[in-house]
């Protein structure tokens, strides 16, 4: 299937199945019999030869490389969009881990249980820098709830911003491909 630029499609006149005027008038057509009633005369006969199509310029290597370049940019853009989605997924999973640790701490889950201990260690790994940010005298649970709640919000906000920036680059590549790739011909 040959690809053409969208501008070529817009500039090309519509194809008509009409016969060239000299063929329709019977130029060069020799008739060996007289027309029968109802049969078209020589000037009305339609030639079965295909009509000449307008000559098109052959597309050289430059257009193929343009298409290949646009396809490469579009593919890279799709890959960058995937990375943006993965960044947001990672930020969401970290936020869920922190939220689960907050809930388990607030309901006084058994801290010696390996699952609860693992969740608390994972949350402390990601939100440990936020511990001690706000101090409530005599309320250690409240301190961790507020501190890790702030960490949860920071992870979601920063993850969304980073994902949006990366996604903007990827969308730019995909849009570049759509604008610069040749339109398929039928």
Question: Would you spell out the secondary-structure blueprint of this structure?
Answer:
Blueprint: E1 3-4, H1 6-11, H2 21-24, H3 61-106, H4 114-127, H5 140-180, E2 183-184
Antiparallel strand pairs: 1-2
Helix pairs in contact: 3-4, 3-5
What does this structure look like?
With 186 residues, the protein is an all-alpha fold. 60% of the residues lie in helices and 2% in strands. The protein contains five helices and two strands. The chain has a two-stranded antiparallel ribbon with strand order 1-2. Helix 3 (61-106) crosses helix 4 (114-127). The mean pLDDT is 75.
Strand fraction band? under 5%
Order of helices and strands: EHHHHHE
- Mean of all residue-level pLDDT scores: 75
Helices and strands: which structural class? mainly alpha
Which shape, going by the Cα principal axes?
A: rod-shaped
Report the end-to-end length measured between terminal Cα atoms: 8 Å
Count helical runs: 5
**Strand runs, count:** 2
**Strand numbers in spatial order across the main sheet:** 1-2
User: In percent, how helical is the residue content?
Assistant: 55-70%
Low-confidence stretches: none
Describe the main β-sheet briefly: 2 strands, antiparallel
- Report the radius of gyration as a whole number of Å: 36 Å
Give a brief rundown of this model.
This protein has 186 residues and is an all-alpha fold. It has helices at 6-11, 21-24, 61-106, 114-127, 140-180; strands at residues 3-4, 183-184.
What are the key terms here?
186 residues; mainly alpha; two-stranded antiparallel ribbon; 5 helices; rod-shaped
